[in-house]
Amino acid sequence: MNWKFGRKLVTMGMVSLSLVGVIATSGVGLISAQEKVQIEIAWRGTGESDNIKRYLEEFKEEFEAENSDIEIVLAPITASEGDYFSKLGLMMQSSETAPDIISEDTFILNANANAGYLLNLDEYVSSWEDWGQFIENIKNGVIGEDGSVYAVPTTTDSRGIWYNKEVFASVGLPEDWQPTSWDEIYEAAEIIKEQATDVTPFAMNVARVNGEATSMQTFGMLLYGTGETLYEDEKWNVNGEGIVKSLQFIDEIMNQRQLGPSLSVALNSTYGSVIMQDQLPNGKVGMVLDGSWNIGNYTEGAVAELEDPEAVLGFALFPTDEGQEPGTVTMAGGWSWAIAQNSENHEEAWRVIQAMSTKESQARRAVLEGTLTVRNDSGEDEAYTQKPFIDSATAALENAYFRPKNDLYPNVSIAIQEAVESVATGTATPEEAAENYKRAVIEIVGEDNTY
Amino acid sequence: MAQAIKKRLSDDKKTLVFLSPTLIILLMFFIIPMVLTIYFSFTNLALTGSQAKNLEFIGFDNFTKMMRDPGLINSISKTIIFVFFSSILGQCLLGFLIAFMLKGKSALVKRVVGTSVIAAWVTPEIVVAFCWVIFLGDGGTLNLLLGKLLDISPIAFLFKYPMVSVVVANIWRGTAFSMMAFQTALDDVPVSVEEAAIIDGASRWKVTSKIIIPMVKGTFTTNLMLVTLQTLGVFTLIYTMTGGGPGNATMTLPVYMYQQAFVSYQLGYGTAISLVILFLGAICSVAYIKLLKVKI
Questions:
Q1: Distance from CA of A363 to the nearest CA of B (A)
Q2: How far apart are CA B219 and CA B213, in angstroms?
Q3: Cβ-defined contacts of A354-360 (< 8 Å, 24+)
Q4: Which of A92, A150, A217, A441 has the fewest CB atoms lying closer than 10 Å?
Q5: Chain A residues bordering chain B (beta-carbon distance below 8 Å)
Q6: Enclosing domain of residue B134
Q7: B138 touches chain A (CB under 8 A)
Q8: In total, how many domains does chain B have?
Q9: Residue A2 confidence (pLDDT)
Q10: A206 near A420, Cβ under 8 Å?
């Protein structure tokens, strides 16, 4: 009898103890949250050498000193490009997991806005005088299909051919190299292959795992270089010759002429950092088709710091396939800061974004990251204009093309990546891959929306 | 009589009460998600885009899409190849062989072999995957050995022979399960039967094929079923080692499902594919059961 009672007592005691524990911990959480509003900023982290992290840490210190009621929590998502967007999509669905401020790539902005993940910023920007300083063209990227503004632009960028001047000098290629057609690219690559046998002549993003990089830096550049587009008059290009021509370029480099990197480098999720942070500055690859923001790898304090970047590397504009007008092309992208619809702190998040978007802060970010600024006035900042390669990167923007403003673009982008990877690995011929691409796009958008 | 019934009822009630925590957990984490999955496979649930906002019931559209999808046909064939070679041929057979050869050996041999095989099995799948990536990599252990011993230039195993690589890795990982199952089964074979057969003049081979193997047939079927179902769901190993590639050389159903659901943002379609995996598992199980009945 006594023993039975004792057991009951012990059980009740343990239950109440655990209950108290649960209440206590949640209570503590509640109390501390009421003191400061926590604003969580999420972006695509790239590990230790993260330029955005450096920028945000500086910003956080300054901002918190001037705004004692807000605490900024840095929450980078370290993932491959493709995984970052998926993870964000999952996080933004509930207010418990949604970050307050999100680094949003303009290519998926439309889709996310339509899904109801992003806060409509029309009211906020209409009463913000700085909004007038943003480049009109770039503003286009953050306006959703319904005409409302869903984010504030932070950076834009262009793409071109990075080349190692020392490798070029060793094989007799000019220091100020600017190809005017795709044939000239082949020529330069063949010369490097012949004379500098340990050097990979030409590299570009071809893997599905590199996500949007493959679609934009490789396929986009090639297709628009043939004079065709992905999407025109609200219809998607599926029958164009340019598609096959672009895939043929990839086939030539990777398979036919063997001018590209090995598959174990090209298909690895670390391709970007391996090529741009190690192989290119160290002369193990001759030419790389990639983005202008890679400047950020070579500046002071960066992961692959070079004393005089412009002496070791060059940035050439990407030519049209046969040198036809307009001579060079580039895809222009852009990132932005958006506020999650499911965030619980819209007002405070807006204040943080405003502070990050001032002329000085904008310029500082562009300088640290190596990207191009999106404000007219920041573009005149001294530290910015003196950055290496800024001239060529900005010059490339003269013939800039933007990605389709359609919320199915992210899905089409996947089809592009599959087509590119299948050709690069030799699994499909350019013609076959183009057929598969056509079929995939028709499946995504419906046959009526293609041409 | 009434008393007995009353006691029985209160016993049942007690059972229910004690089982309720388990039932609730099962319901929350197993049954409800399963029902939701089946429901979602009939919708156009997506991770982003306007579909994410307006969930629509689209009936069998996902399933008709599957019939037109060459990627899915490829996935099914890759899955069948993977399951056949790594679980049926690989794990089952190898497990049996190891168990058979260990029979009657010294305790030391049993322990050493047993421990090393089991160690592979208890290692987390992602660790196993990384070990194999390093082993088969361009500058990895295998290539180093081949270079030193046979003077062969490095082979990119994960790109040239992706299916072979993942099959071998999976066999390496899962054989322990089959081995342990067969060890138990073989220990159950009475020594007297074996001895009687040998006295009657049966050769070693005849003893094995006519006496021992029929006696472990039950274990064989059960083991085959379990191992097949386990292998059907292998995701981490393949995704880490080859990501489904190169191209879609190792794009088994789980990897394809992940691609569709999380990379292409089509959650509805992804759940429909998961039902295909379930269906495949069901077919295999029925096939094995029929096999057992027929043989007996």
A1: 32
A2: 10
A3: A354/A128, A354/A130, A355/A59, A355/A63, A355/A67, A356/A59, A356/A154, A357/A130, A357/A152, A357/A154, A358/A130, A359/A130, A359/A133
A4: A441
A5: 82-83, 85-86, 89-90, 108, 111-112, 114-117, 208-209, 262-264, 267, 269, 407-408, 410-411, 414, 421-422, 425, 427-428, 436, 443
A6: 70-295
A7: yes
A8: 1
A9: 57
A10: yes
- Would you state the structure tokens that stand for residue B51, as one six-digit string? 């579909």
Q: pLDDT tens across A221-230, in order? A: 999 999 999 9
Tokens of A200: 């990979």
Q: Which residue in B47, B248, B249 is closest to A86 by CB distance?
A: B47
d(CA A439, CA A361): 45
**Can you give the pLDDT at residue A25?**
54
| A326 prior amide bond cis, ω within 30 | yes
**Is the CB of residue B88 less than 8 Å from the CB of residue B224?**
yes
Chain A positions touching B158 (Cβ under 8 A) are 264
Indicate whether this complex's ipTM tops 0.85: no
Angle between helices B107-122 and B162-188 (to 10 degrees): 130
- Does a cis peptide bond (omega within 30 degrees of 0) precede residue B246? yes
Closest of B119, B125, B84, B155 to residue B239, by C-alpha: B125
- Does residue B278 sit within a domain? yes
Domains, chain A:
36-157+333-401 (3.40.190.10), 159-331+408-449 (3.40.190.10)
| A26 pLDDT above the threshold of 70 | no
Question: What distance in Å separates the CA atoms of residue B261 and residue A414, rounded to the nearest whole number?
Answer: 12
* Summary mean pLDDT of chain B: 86
Domain assignment present for residue B27? The answer is: no
Q: Kindly report the backbone phi and psi dihedral angles of residue A290, in degrees, each rounded to the nearest multiple of 5, phi listed first.
A: -160, -175
| A426 backbone φψ class: left, alpha, beta (φ>0; ψ -120 to 50) | left
Question: How confident is residue A20, by pLDDT bands cut at 50, 70 and 90?
Answer: low
Q: What are phi and psi of A371, to 5 degrees?
A: -95, 175
Instruction: Please state the rounded mean pLDDT for residues A318-342.
Output: 90
- State how far the Cα of B239 lies from the Cα of B236, in Å rounded to an integer: 5
pTM score of the predicted model: 0.80
- In angstroms, what separates the C-alpha of B50 from chain A's closest C-alpha? 5
Rounded Cα distance, A263 and B181, in Å = 41
Question: Counting beta carbons within 10 angstroms of the beta carbon of residue A171, is it exposed (0 to 12), middle (13 to 18) or buried (19 or more)?
Answer: middle
Alpha helices in chain B (DSSP H): 2-26, 32-40, 50-53, 61-68, 70-83, 93-102, 107-122, 125-136, 141-145, 157-160, 162-188, 191-199, 204-206, 213-215, 217-232, 236-241, 253-258, 267-295
Contacts of A111 in chain B (CB under 8 A): 48-50, 265
* B4 domain-assigned: no
Partner-chain contact A82 B263, CB within 8 Å: yes
pLDDT tens column, A238-248: 999 999 999 99
Q: What's residue A73's pLDDT?
A: 93
Q: In this complex, is the C-beta atom of B161 within 8 Å of any C-beta atom belonging to chain A?
A: no
Residues of B with Cβ-Cβ distance to A264 under 8 angstroms = 137-138, 156, 158-159
Nearest CA in chain A to B259: A414
In the A/B pair of chains, how many CB contacts fall below 8 A? 82
Q: Is B32 part of a structural domain of the chain?
A: no
Residue type at B59 in one-letter notation: G
CA B241 remoteness from chain centre: 17
Q: Give the model confidence (pLDDT) of A161-170 as tens digits.
A: 999 999 999 9
